[in-house]
Design brief:
By secondary structure, the chain is an alpha/beta fold. It contains eight helices and five strands. Strands 2-3-1-4-5 form a five-stranded parallel beta sheet, with helices on both faces.
Length: 207
């Protein structure tokens, strides 16, 4: 299962909440992220998010795909083989939304890269946490002030870019019943409740 959304949508908070609920019900849960999740993936993430780099759109897609191939091989496949549940902060839909709708890389190209990197592994359920770009940018600015950390390369992108990415996510959700859209403006506990209902319905978990 994975959680998707634009910057500042509340993915990380929801991920932690869902992992806690699953563990309370006896599930062995692996929480991970993309790009990242492995030593190689985290190094590639540093390159991918570096604010001082101008990266070609296709190069972006290749960086993410390299990180994903390692992630699937090193983390996801072994976890699933051991009967563990995997919760991932972003996965294939992010590539289609960011590098496809956002950057303009052809969807056919991206889907080919995704198929190679995932080895045919796709999430049983994708939770799309949707917020407006205005809400996203406000939250990102507030987080930067609170943490003292500079915004990364994607967080610094234009509002128009993030609008394209958001529209892309929503378009993908309309095409795929495995993607459930959630209201990211809900309070964290209410958002987790809504997400949990989708998890129980889609993944046949006990309430």
């Amino acid at each position: 299962m994975c959680i998707e959304g634009i910057e500042g949508s509340g993915k990380s908070t929801l991920l932690a909440g869902l992992a806690a609920r699953m563990r309370e019900r006896g599930r062995d849960v692996v929480v991970t992220r993309e790009p990242g999740g492995t030593a190689l993936g985290e190094r590639l993430r540093d390159v991918f998010t570096a604010p001082d780099l101008a990266i070609d759109p296709l190069a972006e897609a290749l960086i993410v795909s390299a990180a994903r191939a390692q992630h699937v091989s090193e983390v996801i496949e072994p976890a699933l083989a051991a009967g563990r549940s995997v919760l991932c902060d972003r996965f294939a839909a992010a590539t289609l939304a960011y590098q496809g709708y956002g950057r303009g890389v052809p969807q056919e190209t991206l889907r080919g890269l995704i198929a190679l990197a995932t080895r045919g592994r796709y999430p049983d359920l994708t939770l799309l946490v949707d917020v407006s770009v205005d809400v996203s940018r406000s939250r990102v600015r507030a987080r930067a002030v609170a943490t003292g950390e500079a915004q990364d390369r994607l967080e610094r992108e234009s509002a128009a870019f993030h609008e394209r990415v958001r529209d892309g996510y929503l378009d993908l959700a309309r095409q795929d019943t495995r993607i459930v859209t959630l209201d990211g403006t809900l309070e964290p506990e209410a958002l987790c409740d809504a997400a949990w209902q989708a998890v129980v319905a889609q993944c046949a978990l006990p309430t």
